[in-house]
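Kindly inspect this chain:
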Amino acid sequence: MSNTKAYQQCTRCVMDTTATEITFDKNGVCNFCTDFETLAHKTIWRPIDVRLKELEDGVAKIKALGKNSKYDCLVGLSGGVDSSYICYWVKQVGLRPLVVHFDNGWNSELAVQNINNIISKTGFDLYTYVINWEEFKDLQLAYIKASVIDIEVPTDQLIFATLFKIARKYKIKSVINGNNISSEAILPHSWYFPDKLDIVNLTNIHKKFGTKKLVNFPSLSLTKQYINSTLFSMFSISPLNLLDYNKEEVKKLLMKEFGWRDYGGKHYESVFTRFYQGYILPVKFNVDKRKAHLATLVAAKIITREMALAELKNSTYDLNLQKQDYNYALKKFDITEQEFETFMKQTPIAHKEYGTQWDKKEFRKYYIFKRVVGPFLKFIKPFVK
């Protein structure tokens, strides 16, 4: 998004005024750094014995909740470093997961190889959810045509909605979360759409720019979220925020244990995510997400500011690979270069311009549902298994 502020970069990390909501103190330190410290002191910077005790209790609770089921937890696996390590950790602590992979049609060959190696070595059951490509392609194209910044929303909605369906199908009551504060905590709201599960926003964008009917796309409306949280609430734990998690050391371990191979970028196990983060975001929106990722690592004291600045001097990713991804995306979307460049040159539009589930009319529907149906759901909850 355009920014009229005079350019300034944080003196402690590498965030700058390309993030419209950034502010600086008298020493030039940004609000993202100070916010990270506040969060870290409450979470990843607590004493290790406190965190490990919390993790031990969490594992015990997962085992107790799942003692009568074939699987005691759900684990999402993309083939990236975080989710791959989660699978390794789950094996070490003796949990019985159903590993879920979401195939939205953009897996890299390397991702498939990593996933196969991990499943082969751990012996875990793998549930691969394959989305209807023609519908999903139409939805992704609608987001590109809408000129909104967060084109990953369809994938995120797919993942969350499908997790609930799978959990209910297999009577799984716990999920292992791959969130990682030490590498993901900093991300300006202006660089993505925070309300990832806003089905109204997604539906409106697709209705305006899509051409196919979404029959097979799983979704989570506010009412569905309320029903799930009331009747089928799940226990969640984030091991990476409770362990002393060093990503570089973890990569070495994964290479040794699984023959795992690195992708060269955060979330680059997906061809589309690689192209989106490495080309579409910087070219159209003037957003380089590496700044947020590297700033988080600096704030977490994992790398130095000098190391982050040196990394930012490099291209977002290999230029030859960018060209390959560009051509591959056009072919996969079945659009011409001229059509794609037209979309790239359109003025960015805020997601909220297409309406949200928090608009007065939409939220009122949810409010009425909650008031009318809520008491009944709470009444029958003890009888729902």
